[in-house]
Specification:
- The strands form 4 sheets. This protein has a 6-stranded mixed beta sheet with strand order 6-7-8-3-9-10, sandwiched between helices. A 5-stranded antiparallel beta sheet has the order 13-17-14-15-16, with no helix packed on it. The chain has a 4-stranded antiparallel beta sheet with strand order 2-1-4-5, covered by helices on one side.
- The N and C termini lie far apart (about 75 Å).
- The protein has 9 helices and 19 strands.
- Strand 18 and strand 19 form a beta hairpin.
- The chain has 2 domains: about 240 residues, 3-Layer(aba) Sandwich (Rossmann fold); about 100 residues, Nucleic acid-binding proteins (OB fold (Dihydrolipoamide Acetyltransferase, E2P)), CATH 2.40.50.
- Helix content is about 25%, strand content about 30%.
- By secondary structure, the protein is an alpha+beta fold.
- The protein is elongated.
- Bound molecules: adenosine-5'-triphosphate and magnesium ion.
Length: about 375
């Protein structure tokens, strides 16, 4: 006979959470291809964010992993086992939906234990696990309420508790915070991240919000039009974007991308030059690339200064400057940057160039 789980085990970390591997996965809806053939590895015990603009295929990918959508081609393995044809209920994967999907007629306790009930988990074990999860997630005082008597954040927490109580080591979340206000979103980001760490879950999290991705992820898989644009740690994608798309998608304000000629950089025609706003400084000594001041935006700690560069003064650049330095005296200014801060992209392949840029550009700051 099956033994009830002792209370101390109810919310214990997963011993070794399994990883998920996508092998040549693709998905068509009729004649429309939602996911191009792609492959990637989602490591066990890590927080992986699927990031990308609306319609790029994030939910489709997540739903295939969950088993709610059948791939047109390719395979999905969980811990090395092929789960492509396995029904959702047998995948050992839990999912939290954007709209929470709580049952309005059930109270919080029954909502959280709903899945355990369906699987006929003994009542005593259900009660033990509910107690552990409710305490861990700050829901103990709300167990008798109906969902309509909860705030959005509390409803979100109930949906999360329902997934966590399943004890399944892989958790999928599709834009779980999009219905919350900014402050609550920031709090829940920290909470979900801490929960994932504490339980050692393999968490796959879908969002179009690059701030969420940057603050929560161990690893980001950046999607664009059904393909993987780049994957890596937040630091890797921020500091070494593989494409102009990745350069613009991560970072706020985004990386400045202009024609390299407008920065007087010796490079083949059409080369795209990229500089992060915080990497550009105003050269008070009049040395550097001449630009024209066109506007500014005050942010509190920083000011965003807009300048135009290039012979026709049509290449717009935004630079971030500590507000305590004040607004530079314009309209004619000079800017500069460390040579290592410059990103170059090949216009044909659309990929980052790794070759060192010419050291003679006027905007290059001297070493030291
Ligand atoms: N059931 C469906 N039938 C037909 N096309 C679909 C279906 N579901 C999704 N698509 C299409 O597949 C593409 C990817 O959709 P998906 O929902 O995965 O995007 P997403 O990245 O989650 O976007 P969002 O951020 O807006 O949620 C879109 O072009 C969408 O219109
Ligand atoms: Mg979606």
């Amino acid at each position: 006979m099956k033994q009830a789980t002792p209370p101390s085990l109810s919310v214990q970390p997963v011993a070794v959470a399994p990883g998920v591997v996508l092998h040549d996965l693709c998905k068509d809806y009729g004649t429309q291809r939602a996911i191009e053939t792609l492959g990637c590895e989602i490591r066990g015990g890590e927080f992986t964010v699927l990031l990308g603009p609306s319609g790029c295929g994030k939910s489709t990918l997540l739903r295939m992993i969950a088993g709610f959508e059948t791939p047109t081609g390719g395979r999905i393995t969980l811990d090395g086992r092929d789960i492509t044809a396995l029904p959702s209920s047998q995948r050992n994967i839990a999912m939290v939906f954007q709209n929470y999907a709580l049952f309005p007629h059930l109270d919080v306790a029954d909502n959280i234990t709903f899945g355990l009930n369906v699987r006929r988990t003994p009542k005593a074990e259900q009660a033990q696990r509910l107690d552990g999860v409710a305490r861990m997630m700050g829901l103990a005082a709300l167990l008798a309420r109906k969902p309509a008597q909860l705030s959005g954040g509390q409803q979100q927490r109930v949906a999360l508790a329902r997934a966590v109580i399943s004890g399944r080591p892989v958790l999928l979340m599709d834009e779980p915070l999009s219905n919350l206000d900014a402050k609550l979103r920031a709090e829940m980001r920290v909470e979900i991240r801490a929960l994932q760490r504490r339980l050692g879950l393999t968490l796959i999290y879908v969002t179009h919000d690059q701030v969420e991705a940057m603050t929560m992820a161990d690893r980001i898989i950046l999607l664009n039009a059904g393909q993987i644009e780049q994957s890596g740690t937040p630091e890797e994608i921020y500091s070494r974007p593989a494409t102009p798309f990745a350069a613009r998608f991560i970072g706020s304000p985004p990386m400045n991308l202009v024609d390299a000629a407008d920065l007087r950089i010796a490079a083949p025609p059409g080369t795209i030059a990229g500089l992060r706003p915080e990497e550009i400084e105003i050269a008070d000594d009049g040395d550097g690339l001449p630009v024209r001041l066109t506007g500014h935006e005050y942010l509190g700690a920083d000011i965003l200064v807009s300048v135009m560069a290039g012979t026709a003064a049509t290449a717009r650049l935004i630079l971030r400057r500590p507000a305590r330095l004040g607004l530079p005296e314009g309209p004619e200014l000079h800017i500069r940057w460390a040579p290592a801060a410059l990103h170059l992209f090949d216009p044909k392949s659309g990929r980052a160039l790794t070759a060192a840029p010419a050291a003679t550009a006027p905007g290059h700051r001297a070493a030291g």
